[in-house]
Amino acid sequence: xxxxxxxxxxxxxxxxxxxIPEDDVAAPEFSIVIPALNEQLTIGxxxxxxxxxxxxxxxxxxxxxxxxxxxxxxxxxxxxxxxxLSAPKRGLGRAYIDSLPYIRGKYVIxxxxxxxxxxxxxxxxxxxxxxxxxxxMGSRFKGYIEPGAMPPLHRYLGTPVTTWIxxxxxxSKFSDIHCGMRGISTAALHRMGLxxxxxxxxxxxVLKSVHMKLDTEQVPIRFLKDREGRxxxxxxxxxxxxxxxxxINLRAMFVYGADFFLYRPGILLLVLGLALVLPLSFGPVTxxxxxxxxxxxxxGVTLATLGLQCIYMGxxxxxxxxxxxxxTALWFRRFPYTRSVGIAAALFLAGVSLAVILIIYYIHxxxxxxxxxxxxxxxxxxxxxxxxxxxxxxxxxxLHSTAVVVWRR
Length: 409
What we know:
Elements: E1 3-4, E2 17-20, E3 30-36, H1 43-57, E4 61-67, H2 73-79, E5 83-86, H3 92-99, E6 107-110, H4 123-130, E7 135-145, H5 152-170, E8 182-185, H6 186-192, H7 201-211, E9 216-223, H8 233-237, H9 241-256, H10 258-277, E10 285-287, E11 290-292, H11 294-320, H12 326-334, H13 337-364, H14 374-408
Parallel strand pairs: 3-4, 3-6, 4-5, 7-9
Antiparallel strand pairs: 1-2, 2-5, 6-8, 7-8, 10-11
């Protein structure tokens, strides 16, 4: 006899329904949480593999299938002893978000139920978690890839290139960021606050694990080819599906790694800009055959303004993705409100003063600016100081408003 969830486990989302098997596992240490969509061909063997893997690892675990199928996947999973969370078809990422209130184990192991990831080999995950790891990534490249299991485009281009991009952006050392077989402590998964609804959840999880500074390990896994008669979800969706998945994963990398494109490049732009603005503030400078004139100075103002903007946006990006609080505390120390507003006001007033001097000269000179006059250069410097002061003021407001947002949460 199969029972539905008790009132205490009734879902907040009325579209969700938890089905519990007769031989349910009590007090599991591990929760194997798997989304499923029309996997009746493999779901029975997959659950057997999970039970075998848990037994070999000496671990007590539950199997929770987040099912959106229209075939007999649900019935087979229940008969095999898995819990089934019946959910609408809303995407891979959403399946894990939906499952969070129903996870009972201390650790979560994720993957696919198509028998391509070998869940008979769970011992490396169990050992890493019991050794203190919070996030454990499987690696097909450090393990075994059965011939025909991974298309050459994925194996030799897609996965290595996107993994390399992520490692460059975040300074990480992952070897296979798209491996679906992975694990995370339940506490870390709750803190992570997944938002992605689709394929990009995989990258979001990896990226947030870096931001959260989770104790991370990698373990080799076995990756097997699809069984005869089964089409992967990418093949079911058409030839464009892998490209779409790659793009949304890259999008997630760039969004969660925004600081990489802002803070350090901003410092470089600001230094280059100031190297042109400051020496030219009192007139043209000639070095050999090149005369650095007002036009060079305007280029310097442009570079310095872009650089300062990137630096401030980079700082805000660091604060937005700061799970430990360390970066936030650092920037609040460096930009205390009163001092920062005072500096902003001083920069703004200095810029206005230089601009006013230029305007007075312009009026007295019959509304003309003479070529080569030092006041022209000082006026451009004043323009930059005015911009920098206003940007520093608005940045300070935004930075300190983040404290209000966190407090309200």
